[in-house]
Design a protein that fits this description.
The complex is a heterodimer of chains A (about 300) and B (about 250). Chain A is mainly alpha-helical and about 300 residues long. Chain A contains 11 helices and 2 strands. Helices cover about 75% and strands about 5% of the residues of chain A. Chain A has a two-stranded antiparallel sheet. Chain B has a domain at about 1-80 and about 210-250: 3-Layer(aba) Sandwich (Rossmann fold). In chain B, about 40% of the residues lie in helices and about 25% in strands. A 6-stranded mixed sheet of chain B has the order 6-7-8-3-9-10, sandwiched between helices. In chain B, helix 3 packs across helix 4. The longest helix of chain B is centred in the middle third of the chain and has 24 residues, at about 110-135. The chains are: A mainly alpha (about 300), B alpha/beta (about 250).
């Protein structure tokens, strides 16, 4: 019973991680830029939804509105900031994304303050009974919504004309340009979609926990996900997101209590701290040593 | 004239790649562009296709100036090109690449776009099989990733991609280079067949003289960035300056 409950929590948070990580991979594939500011868009999405509810919108409409706002913010980021840096080194562009993260945090801090805020209820209160264990609607909805949207996005990427142009731009931007694709517009689309996914991820995470500036650090968890999945694999992000979510949940629910009870019995150590926050990075360290291209990534080759 | 290029020049640093180049092509005409390596033939095609922006001159296509337009905007004017070195979109299949060509043509009215959306991908794929992949004998390998194909087949896919955009002007950069003699003859046959069927204008850069002579209605010769001669195949072969510059005769 306990295992099933822990697994459900892991799937819920893991699928949200996947949603956020897919956005990072999408931008990386299209433009070669690792968006270190993805956590900022996650946080911005949650605060935008909260602000819209304060303006009188229902929580569900506010969530949808926040996703649209974040899509616009992502497209504007590309148009106003990154398109002007086309000839700058990729490292400089990555630093700018880090700068945007700091800027977004400062803006949210100035407007909403540093305190945790209770996030409005988007999904019905209560719990669903699955084989004798109760799982709140929040967790079920977060998992279902994230998984369905992730799969829908992968289908869009695979089977639609716009997805085909995205894949071509991601495969080889110079070749895509040569065959008549407006690559800059495709990069704008990638930023818009990525930010929208991050915004939705932010809303879901705020629903599961609460709203605070620390949501911006979720971007740091998304990086182990993309390293594990392979920096260029969207499906890898989905699988690795679920894997890391489960790993975190089982570390928090099983490993930490077991370790702490052992240590209390035999040593003077009382707590091991937030072990679940460390485990993803340990896994990434091991992964980089054993299979640096990730589970689904392809080993990079360069023509010389 | 369908295409009227006048006095086009472009330099890279101190190197003048194309100097005062001009060329006319009529509808339904195949014009060959030949010259020694480094003569500026591909650069000239790049100036028409929007890949390079010439520093001076005009590129009028059906009365509209192409100079200043980006490659994707040039394609929407009905101008498609192929490449000397085939574009490396490794992860895509043959059908994907041909679909990209069809998608690049643009210009569909909102009503046509809505109808195409409703018809779905299956109907587009059927159309591409019939109009482009079938004639180029690519239908059996439509689902194969481009990176698994031979150089000759990649060339054919590149032509299929250009044809899928239903061009009125086709710019071909060494379409038979690297192909076997048989593949080259097939390719030349397809080019003539496309011209006969669609009456599109064709500009073809090519080194294989047998293909140029058997395919082109008229031939322009470039050397050191400028046009040195223009005429029929027989006239080109008879001109002593062309023989000296291109064929190395004393």
């Amino acid at each position: 019973m306990l295992l099933l409950q822990i697994a459900t929590a892991g799937i819920a948070t893991g699928s949200v991680y996947a949603l956020i990580a897919i956005g990072i991979v999408l931008i990386y594939k299209c433009s070669g830029v690792v968006n270190f500011g993805q956590g900022g868009y996650v946080m911005l999405g949650a605060y935008a939804a909260y602000a819209l509810t304060r303006l009188g919108l229902s929580p569900q409409l506010a969530a949808a509105g926040a996703v649209l706002i974040l899509a616009a913010v992502g497209a504007l980021t590309e148009l106003l900031v990154l398109r002007r840096m086309l000839k700058a080194p990729v490292v400089a562009v990555m630093m700018v994304t880090l700068g945007l993260l700091i800027l977004f945090r400062a803006v949210c801090l100035a407007i909403f303050g540093p305190d945790q805020i209770a996030f409005p209820q988007i999904f019905p209160q209560g719990a669903v009974d699955i084989a004798g264990i109760f799982i709140t609607y929040n967790y079920v909805a977060a998992a279902v919504l994230s998984l369905v949207l992730s799969l829908a996005f992968l289908a869009f990427y695979r089977y639609t004309p716009m997805g085909l142009m995205q894949r071509a731009a991601a495969d080889n931007s110079r070749a895509a340009l040569a065959v008549g694709i407006h690559v800059s517009n495709q990069v704008s689309v990638a930023w818009a979609v990525s930010s929208a996914l991050a915004g939705l991820g932010g809303v879901l995470l705020a629903t599961l926990n609460s709203l605070s500036l620390t949501l911006s650090s979720i971007g740091l968890v998304a990086f182990p996900v993309i390293v594990l999945g392979g920096l260029t694999s969207l499906m890898g992000s989905l699988v690795a997101g679920l894997l890391l979510g489960m790993l975190e949940a089982f570390t928090d629910g099983l490993l930490t209590p077991a370790l702490e009870s052992f240590l209390r019995a035999h040593t003077s150590v009382y707590s091991v701290g937030a072990l679940q926050q460390v485990v993803p990075y340990m896994l990434v360290g091991a992964m980089l040593l054993v299979r640096p291209q990730g589970i689904f990534g392809q080993r990079g080759t360069e023509r010389v | 004239m369908a295409l009227a290029v006048r006095d086009v020049s472009i330099s890279f640093g101190g190197v003048v790649a194309v100097k005062g180049m001009g060329l006319d092509i009529s509808e339904g005409e195949i014009v060959g562009l030949i010259g020694p390596n480094g003569a500026g033939k591909t650069t000239f095609i790049n100036c028409i296709a929007g890949t390079y922006q010439p520093s001076s001159g005009t590129v009028a296509w059906q009365g509209r100036e192409l100079r200043g337009l980006a490659p994707h905007a040039v394609i929407r004017q009905g101008v498609a090109r192929t490449f000397q070195n085939v574009a490396s979109l490794h992860d895509l299949t043959v059908l994907d690449i041909v679909k990209l060509g069809a998608g690049a043509r643009g210009g569909a009215s909102p009503r046509d776009a809505a109808r195409a959306f409703v018809r779905g991908e299956a109907e587009l794929e059927a159309e591409l099989h019939e109009a482009v992949l079938g004639p180029l004998r690519l239908s059996p390998i439509a689902a194969q990733p481009i990176q698994t194909l031979s150089y000759g087949l990649r060339k054919a896919v590149d032509l299929a991609r250009a044809l899928a955009s239903r061009p009125r002007l086709l710019l071909l950069d060494e379409p038979v280079a690297g192909l076997t003699a048989q593949e080259g003859r097939q390719m030349a046959g397809v080019i003539r067949e496309v011209r006969d069927r669609t009456r599109c204008a064709v500009l073809m850069v090519e080194h294989k003289m047998d293909v140029v002579m058997s395919t082109c209605d008229r031939i322009a010769v470039m050397a050191a960035g400028a046009k040195i001669f223009e005429g029929t195949g027989a006239e080109v072969q008879a001109d002593p300056e062309v023989r000296r510059v291109y064929l190395g005769e004393p």
